[in-house]
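ingest -> validate -> predict -> emit
validate: passed (alphabet ok, no gaps, 111 aa)
predict: started
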Amino acid sequence: MADLELSCGLPPGPDFADLAVLAEQLGYARVWIFDSAPLWEDPFVHLALAATRTARIGLATAVLIPSQRSVMTMAGIPGRSASVPMASVQCSGRKSAQLGERALSAADPRS
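emit:
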């Protein structure tokens, strides 16, 4: 039987780092942080704090939407947000960022 990995998705907020620590203690493989620039705080600040308080668990963003951030924010690392370097230094290779732009509707010829 294949090994199963558990992940959890959490919103950015004051409890994120504490919940990441708990998820690591419970054996979760990864914590995903929600992202929507108009709705949530900067996810990378929370990821960086969680990275300083955990040792093993993977830290990831759910889908980042580049058009919701300034060009300067997104210019740091090719294919990654500029805020990622701070989190990357703390994560030692445990981070992952997923990028997306928009959902395609069934009426869209590109879907």
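The CA atoms of residues 11 and 34 lie 5 Å apart.
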